[in-house]
Amino acid sequence: MKNFLHKAVSILICCVLVILYAYTKTGKTNKRALYSPKHKEINILKEKSCYASKEDKEFAAGFKHGIIEECKKISKETPIRLDNCFVLKSIDITEQSITYSYQFEFEKSEMTEDEWKEFLEETKKETKTNLLSVTSEMLKKSDISLSKTLELAEIRLEYIYSDMNGSIIGTIQLDYLDFYGM
Q1: Which residues of 106-131 are buried (b: 16+ CB within 10 A; e: fewer)?
Q2: Tell me: the pLDDT tens digits for 108-120?
Q3: Is the pTM of this model over 0.85?
Q4: What is the 3-state secondary structure (H, E, C) of 72-95?
């Protein structure tokens, strides 16, 4: 069951990123990027973004705009049943983050804490791998890394998992630091 859930999450992420890739090719940009750092490390590393080229900044703005627009479209269709026990309940979008809320159609107690911890760790690894894979060709053409794109776009991705009763199972947060050096 865990492998099936991982595949469902991976498929959803890939679909969003494929659409995003097509959207960023249009050259549309969003110049209204805001920033409110929550981590001390981000403040220190953020200073490097002032040395980014105009093209990289525009590319990152287009990336951000594309993913936000596609998430808004998908959000209108939520809840989306991904399989017989897994639902994308909502997508919440702000200028700084996109939060995907998933719900399992069973209780948290049906798996042990260790199994949930393993699920979250594996899901985070798969999500990072999928994001890198789906964006690799697009990023090669622009000569910018995913880490730098997320940094310049000033956006964080968050995934919240809950059980059928609304009890939080765990969260995964990804920002540019998670892809630094990859």
Answers
A1: eebeebeeeebeebbeebbeebbebb
A2: 999 999 999 999 9
A3: no
A4: HHHHHCCCEEEECCEEEEEEEECC
